[in-house]
Amino acid sequence: MEEYELVRNAAGRLVPTVVNGRKVVPFKGVNKYRPIGRKASPPIPTCIDYPSDG
Description:
The protein is mostly beta strands. The protein contains no helices and 4 strands. The strands form 2 sheets. A two-stranded antiparallel sheet has the order 1-2. It has a two-stranded antiparallel ribbon with strand order 3-4.
């Protein structure tokens, strides 16, 4: 079994760094993290890609 640690996320909750054997990124806050990767073909869109006024 893989070792993991608990870290505090931006919401103040303790969350594990590994879930179901995969490393995860704890919530860092709004517009603080940009995911890297693709779902099928296009890059993953995020709120950072759009203006804050909608």
